[in-house]
What we know:
The chain is 33% helix and 10% strand. By secondary structure, the protein is of the alpha/beta class.
Amino acid sequence: xxxxxxxxxxxxxxxxxxxxxxxxKTLLTxxxxxxxxxxxxxxxxxxxxxxxxxxxxxxxxxxxxxxEQKPQRIFTCGGDCSSDYAQISYLNHIYQGDFNIIWIxxxxxxxxxxxxPSQNFHGMTLRCLTGD
Length: 132
């Protein structure tokens, strides 16, 4: 399954992420792509996390798309780091932790709502996926 999820909400501000995801999509013209629509609503801070409500809604939308197809592998053309949350959670469930992830990022994403200097979820994704 290939998912186009140009999520920007985890960064905390609109930026060129949606346009970058669309450019990546042009490289995958021979494949069926599941696109998660972009939402540009203003973010609301909740529990010290910018856009928490919108991020949760996007995670649910991605998970619904995944549950429809029930893939064994997932490739994501994403946005911020939290655009992979639902996919990794799903794969962890079906493989019971016996799978590999290629995560290309410049920082560890291990903040908590209490420790985050930015209040942006993209710096908390791996912390959440580890169950903390």
